[in-house]
Specification:
Number of strands: 10
Number of helices: 23
Structural class: alpha/beta
Strand order of the largest sheet: 3-4-2-5-1-6-7-8
Helix content: 40-55%
Largest sheet: 8 strands, mixed
Bound molecules: guanosine-5'-diphosphate, magnesium ion
Length: 734
């Protein structure tokens, strides 16, 4: 029957080795008021004098006492783990140099063996004073003591300071609360069995011990009542009613004991004698109850309770061990195996990183983020949302005032008053606008570059976790990819710059989309002009112009009025058959000026441009002559010229913007993204896969090796514990 308990103690040893308190093992805790005889009860159970006892506050720190049964012949083996064995063999630890049947060990004195139990008691007192002082102070820090003996059953016992009401000595004002909390901390552990100690010469109905026990064990499923000092009852009274549970019933039982009195202690009465006398006393005083009371019966009861308790706890214990073991196994797996073939490992890690990097860009990575966009999707976002939107928000005429346009027109004509809207001014202005596309394009490259940089981090964090084991390799890979990206940056920037430069190099007014727009504009303007002329002015020479075609390419739309004009005006030079704008004169032939308006231009030219216009002539009063928010009023012609230029700029700009919006992402993909994707693997291998670097790169971070060992140890201990539990269950003790 007692076979179970060594197993539990073994289990506890297992966890003591790994310093883990994750699993709570059953233990017996004594509670009661001060001097009710708690320490004495424990001592009787141990069967040896070892605990400080006495009147007043004696026990001032929790004492966790683990009793380990050893049979006389196997004590060397059973003394526990290897440490025990070694220390046992070390003669330095023997007091008086003889082998003892019983011995004790403290956690705080490591491997020192105590064979003299007076010395043990002294050590408890010293250790109590060390932490709690020598003036009745209390500490919650426990003392751990193991007793190895052939005379004990396997139990873990906890001796606690007694409940008290009035602070004495160094005790704080709230000593009552502090001790209560300390006690509750131990007995609230569902794995504890509570020994509620009450002296027989006090009223059991007011037992503080049972009261506090009930607080954490209301069902009384793990509370056992112990009545001490049966010998000290008033003459004429006995504890029959109490022991039979007639005063307060206690589910698990009420056991009366007789411990040694203070006089016995002073006379150094040994436990064996005390137990014999106790038996005699019970036989005499309570013959009917003698077999169900006394220290021996208490020990057996406890043992049985403990076993039942353990049995109840086993399934949960086992589950917890298994869960923990699984957790540590996972942890251990994540640390990976120690490297054997370094060269292969390096190549494998490099390849894995490169693959993951590419996969993250392609969107085929194993670890797909769901919380935010990453990798290739972000690049897509940059192209179409960030870059696309930015381009779309660029105003074709942004940064260009009507005055700017006007000034450009005038400047383009030089000293001569302009007859036509000069083509040069359109080119000049449209280039200026197109140039504005370069900055957002370069910014797009930068953003993608940043994203590519971010992917490195993403890969090493999520996908290639093994890499974290080798910080140097990780850094080296990051370095190589970063420098590869950095190397591609100027090339890509150059290309994007060129894309804009290409657009600037040749303003293709023959572009089909542009010609369309141009035709429409001409149409529109001609119409407006005709309207105005027919209303306000006698028909000028230009009014004889054939109406331009309803829609058509720029050339045909512009050519016709222009050829009509050539008759009466200073003709533009060569007009080629295909209707190309004449490069020689730089005039925009389609944008003919109405004769009647020439004068006003000349007049305006004289006036400082920034001044408000002089009072308008009659001819200027027309529909188009709306005030504009510039420094001065424009003449109708100026107004119209500006409008023409602006519309053309806008139309042409939109064409170019579309090109840029289309070609920049392509360039970035080709020169940066795809290039890096394609060369990453060979770049990494080329720079890192060198036998000279091997050792260095594959150095594990120190704490990684340590963590792996710790996890492995923990796992081993857990597996051993699991195995022990399996053994217990197989024995079918109950
Ligand atoms: P604790 O404060 O609850 O740990 O009580 P102790 O074990 O230190 O005992 C207090 C005093 O009561 C000591 O002097 C013991 O000798 C005495 N004592 C304890 N139990 C008994 C008993 O059953 N009979 C007699 N006569 N004295 C006892
Ligand atoms: Mg005590």
């Amino acid at each position: 029957m007692e076979a179970l308990i060594p197993v539990i103690n073994k289990l506890q040893d297992v966890f003591n080795t790994v310093g883990s308190d994750v699993i709570q093992l059953p233990q017996i805790v004594v509670v009661g008021t001060q001097s009710s005889g708690k320490s004495s009860v424990l001592e009787s159970l141990v069967g040896r004098d070892l605990l400080p006892r006495g009147t007043g506050v004696v026990t001032r720190r929790p004492l966790i006492l683990q009793l380990v049964h050893v049979s006389s012949d196997d004590r060397r083996k059973t003394s526990g783990d290897e440490n025990d064995l070694n220390s046992w063999k070390n003669p330095m630890h023997f007091s008086k140099g003889v082998e003892a049947d019983e011995w004790g060990k403290f956690l705080h004195t490591k491997n020192k063996i105590y064979t003299d139990f007076d010395e043990i008691r002294q050590e408890i007192e010293n250790e109590t004073e060390r932490i709690s002082g020598n003036n009745k102070g209390i500490s919650s820090e426990p003392i751990h003591l193991k007793i190895f003996s052939p005379n004990v059953v396997n139990l873990t016992l906890v001796d606690l300071p007694g409940m008290t009401k009035v602070p004495v000595g160094d005790q704080p004002k709230d000593i009552e609360i502090q001790i209560r909390e300390l006690i509750l901390r131990y007995i609230s552990n569902p794995n504890s069995i509570i020994l509620a100690v009450t002296a027989a010469n006090t009223d059991m109905a007011t037992s503080e011990a049972l009261k506090i026990a009930r607080e954490s064990d209301p069902d009384g499923r793990r509370t056992l009542a112990v009545i001490t000092k049966l010998d000290l009852m008033d003459a004429g009274t006995d504890a029959m009613d109490v022991l039979l549970g007639r005063v307060i019933p206690v589910k698990l039982g009420i056991i009366g004991v007789v411990n040694r009195s203070q006089l016995d202690i002073n006379n150094k009465k040994i436990v064996a004698d005390s137990i014999r006398d106790e038996y005699g006393f019970l036989q005499k005083k309570y013959p009917s109850l003698a077999t169900r009371n006394g220290t021996k019966y208490l020990a057996r009861t406890l043992n049985r309770l403990l076993m039942h308790h353990i049995r109840d706890c086993l399934p949960e214990l086992k589950t917890r061990i298994n869960v923990l073991a699984a957790q540590y196994q996972t942890l251990l797996n994540s640390y990976g195996e120690p490297v054997e073939d370094k060269s292969a490992t390096l190549l494998q890690l490099i390849t894995k990183f490169a693959t993951e990097y590419c996969n993250t860009i392609e969107g085929t990575a194993k670890y797909i983020e769901t919380s935010e966009l990453c990798g290739g999707a972000r690049i897509c976002y940059i192209f179409h949302e960030t870059f696309g939107r930015t381009l779309e928000s660029v105003d074709p005429l942004g940064g260009l005032t009507t005055i700017d346009v006007l000034t450009a027109i005038r400047n383009a004509t030089g000293p001569r008053p302009a007859l036509f809207v000069p083509e040069v001014s359109f080119e000049l202005l449209v280039k200026r606008q197109v140039k504005r596309l370069e900055e957002p394009s370069l910014r797009c490259v930068e953003l993608v570059h940043e994203e590519m940089q971010r992917i490195i981090q993403h890969c090493s964090n999520y996908s290639t976790q093994e890499l974290l084991r080798f910080p140097k390799l990780h850094d080296a890979i990051v370095e190589v990819v970063t420098s590869l990206l950095r190397k591609r940056l100027p090339v890509t920037n150059e290309m994007v710059h060129n894309l804009v430069a290409i657009e600037l190099a040749y303003i293709n007014t023959k572009h089909p989309d542009f010609a369309d727009a141009c035709g429409l504009i001409n149409n529109n303007i001609e119409e407006q002009r005709r309207n105005r002329i027919s209303r306000d002015l006698p028909p000028p020479a230009a009014s004889r112009d054939k109406p331009p075609k309803a829609s058509g390419p720029l050339a045909s739309a512009s050519l016709e009025p222009s050829s009509a004009e050539t008759d009466g005006k200073a003709a533009p030079g060569s007009s080629t058959g295909d209707g190309l704008p004449d490069a020689g004169t730089g005039n925009w032939r389609g944008m003919m000026k109405a004769k009647g308006e020439e004068a006003s231009v000349e007049e305006k030219n004289k006036a400082p441009p920034a001044f408000p216009a002089s009072p308008l002539r009659g001819h200027a009063v027309n529909l188009l002559d709306v005030p504009v928010p510039v420094a001065r009023k424009l003449s109708a012609r100026e107004q119209r010229d500006c409008e023409v230029i602006e519309r053309l700029i806008k139309s042409y700009f939109l064409i170019v913007r579309k090109n840029i919006q289309d070609s920049v992402p392509k360039a970035v993909m080709h020169f940066l993204v795809n290039h890096v994707k394609d060369t990453l693997q060979s770049e990494l291998v080329g720079q890192l896969y060198k036998s000279l670097l091997l050792e260095d790169l594959l150095t594990e971070s120190e704490d990684m090796a340590q963590r792996r060992n710790e996890a492995a140890d923990m796992l081993k201990a857990l597996q051993r514990a699991s195995q022990i539990i399996a053994e217990i269950r197989e024995t079918h003790l109950w």
